[in-house]
Design goal:
Elements: H1 2-11, H2 13-16, E1 21-23, H3 28-37, E2 42-44, H4 46-50
Parallel strand pairs: 1-2
Length: 52
């Protein structure tokens, strides 16, 4: 997860704050990172949606 943490830090809060939705794996570690850096982002899990 350290690589993803560096990635978020390198993008900067200005860009991250403009994100509205993301497609991602529903791994709990990813969720925690998005909640930390992009608390307003709506996660979207493609596979879960397609299986319904």
């Amino acid at each position: 997860m350290a690589d993803f943490e560096r990635f978020f830090k390198s993008i900067g809060l200005s860009l991250l704050s403009r994100l509205k939705a993301v497609a991602m794996d529903m791994n709990a570690s990813f969720n925690r990172l998005f909640q930390k850096y992009c608390p307003k982002v709506q996660p979207y899990h493609v596979i879960d949606t397609m299986q319904r």
